[in-house]
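Newbie here. two chains, one complex. Structure please?
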Amino acid sequence: MAIEHDELANLVPALVLGSVTPEEREQLLAHLEGCESCRELAAGLARGAAALALEPDPVEPPARLHGRVLAAVAAARQDAAPQQRRGSRSPLPRSPRRSSRFRGMPLGLAAAAALAFVLGTGLGAGVAHVQLPFGPAGPAPASEVSRAPLHGTGSMAGVSATAVTLRADGVTLVDFKDLPALSPGQVYELWLITGSGQAVPATVFVPDARGSRVVVLNQDLAGTRQLAVTVERGPDGATAPSQPPQLSGRIA
Amino acid sequence: MTPGRKDLSELSDTQLAAALGAGEVDAMDVLYQRYGGPAFSLAVRILGDRARAEDVVQEAFVRVWRRVGSFAADRGSLRTWLLTVVRNCAIDNLRGSGREREELELQVEVRAEGEGSNPWREVSRSLERQAVRDALDALPRGQRQALELAYYGGYSQQEIARMVNAPLGTIKGRTRLGLEKLCSYLQGRGLIDGD
């Protein structure tokens, strides 16, 4: 039986707060199409609901999140064309052809482009056919790119991981696959091991449900002899490894 | 002249949305620099977990990129839309619903905080935050509870009624009264427009 108008109107505040069931939402949206008074009510109340997003205490995001976001957007751009965009002409000119492969790109975009180049083609193979996500810039000379596999032992014996450094752009990506699931409250921590054996914390991360994650580092690993990964307590990880690494790789 | 990063950073939110709509990936960088902080703060508020909040913010920005074609500047601000996407992603993550919440296409406008320098932006955000807190503090406890469980918890009216052991009609009434008072207070403070 259809819900009466007054009953629907009583649910409009819940609708703008996102506090209705999917079925109620469907009914309400259909109702709003034909009910001007409810539409006006929703529009007015939605302003207050939106303001609730401004209430939380400010929490500074970790620096790595910027790179993560941009890399993910770059990957999304590769995966599929965005939704049909409004208007047929761009109100802004397109970015100019870049003078070097990735120079001038935001870190994450450069990283994603580097990943597309290196992981998508393999070093030294099919370079002329690389499909870059950001335009027609040419491939990087292989001398600018170094690649180092990481090897796992124990519970990480089945992990596949590769560190890719694009020296000219000062960007390193570490592509992890098949990482074991973490216990609640735990994170993986990536360490840069210097020539003197000091472990420098690089970043912490949590893989997705399939055990995959691409970690982006804003550095070219100069002075780093080895990469290592340990499991540490989240969310911020440790300042020194709490255990011997079960996943590591030597940097060329 | 082709706009560089500096030029993009000087765009208004409306112009930035147009740049995103035109496929300018650098505009996403500017969007993050402008609103990454509030987005992360909101995700942490809802999830109470920084690691999960990072995942949610990443997901939200990707969703914005993919759906920017559906954003209508004449219906609301880019900031409001982005934060709504963050809220919905966070609730999906919190509740494990397995389905993406769609953003309402309603006329929603919270006064633009201004796109000026960072110091002014921080002051402006602080004033906005205090205004919303004052508005919530002014509500009777039951009304405030209903709003917070609905918005930050993503609970349906029925779920809230069960949680607080009150009749469904009471919860609907508290929600409506609370939201109306909140709107009225914020209009009086100039944070949101009236009719």
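Moderator note: Residues 80-110, 113-143 of chain A have pLDDT under 50 and may be disordered. The longest helix of chain A spans residues 63-79. Thread marked as resolved.
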